[in-house]
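Saturday, quiet lab. Running sequence design on the structure tokens for the scaffold JK sent over.
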């Protein structure tokens, strides 16, 4: 896997495209600047770039007529009010929906965008974390879009489903993959630690590394990343104190709903 030969610093540069320096921590705008603007819409990505985020994260699903759209849930209910599965809707049905007003009147009329529309907004030197949500058969359509995009080198693919990540890696071997791993909640409200063995599992599959729920991070997990010479990326951290703690432990990238706050608090941006 070409990425392994780039080493730690190389991956940080790769993760944000043409960025020339080793920036720590990378600040990744979760679903765009989603604390302010409606998640996964063009408005959220424009704002994330205005805030000077290092990268932005997007969730994608496939419509019935095989368009790749930016959406977090399997149905459109939460963000448009239409209680139908995205897999059963055509693009013509989806494109007219209002995915903005649930977030506030000023966003009324913001549509559900296509992946290629949002990808095209990514400035040079910035990264694009593309999360493949559960959507059978989506990988070839993503591969087609990335093949036609001048932004391809700025993309990192992420996803929870191991087999889908294996499929994505086979289809797009030059695009780095980070395997997403969550952390289950115990009965007492604490969260389960993420098994450090997952680091080796990801690397053996040819992935660049792991991107995990911050709640499951332990010193053992950080050490496993260090030993394997791979960076640790964490989501979704909105408290600067928590982010500082994770960075001090060794996290290289922080996915957050508040990139402006994190850039100011962790990197001293104006
Ligand atoms: O960036 C990874 C993170 O977005 C995974 O969780 O539910 O927000 O897609 P979710
Ligand atoms: Ca996501």
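Result came back. Writing it out in full:
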């Amino acid at each position: 896997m070409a990425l392994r030969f780039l080493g730690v610093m190389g991956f940080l540069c790769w993760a944000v495209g043409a960025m020339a320096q080793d920036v720590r921590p990378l600040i990744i705008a979760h679903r765009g600047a989603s604390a302010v603007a409606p998640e996964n819409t063009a408005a959220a990505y424009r704002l994330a770039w205005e805030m000077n985020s290092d990268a932005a994260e997007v969730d994608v699903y496939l419509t019935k007529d095989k368009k790749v759209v930016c959406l977090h849930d399997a149905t459109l209910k939460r963000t448009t009010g239409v209680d139908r599965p995205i897999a059963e809707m055509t693009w013509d049905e989806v494109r007219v929906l209002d995915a903005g007003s649930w977030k506030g009147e000023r966003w009324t009329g913001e549509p559900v965008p296509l992946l290629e529309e949002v990808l095209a907004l990514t400035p040079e030197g910035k990264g694009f974390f593309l999360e493949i949500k559960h959507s059978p058969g989506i990988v070839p359509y993503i591969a087609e879009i990335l093949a036609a995009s001048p932004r391809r080198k700025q993309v990192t693919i992420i996803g929870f489903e191991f087999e889908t990540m294996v499929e994505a890696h086979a289809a797009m071997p030059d695009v780095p993959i980070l395997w997403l791993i969550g952390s289950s909640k115990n009965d007492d409200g604490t969260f389960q630690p993420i098994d450090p063995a997952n680091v080796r599992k990801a690397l053996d599959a040819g992935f660049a590394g792991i991107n995990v729920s911050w709640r499951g991070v332990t010193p053992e997990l950080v050490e496993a990343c260090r030993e394997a010479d791979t960076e640790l990326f964490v989501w979704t951290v909105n408290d600067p104190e928590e982010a500082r703690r994770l960075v001090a432990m060794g996290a290289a990238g922080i996915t957050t709903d508040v990139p402006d706050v994190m850039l100011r608090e962790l990197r001293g941006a104006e």
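Notes for JK: Residues 57, 59, 131 surround calcium ion (ligand 2) (CB under 6 Å). Confidence is low (pLDDT under 50) at residues 1-9. Ask whether to fix the surface positions before the next round.
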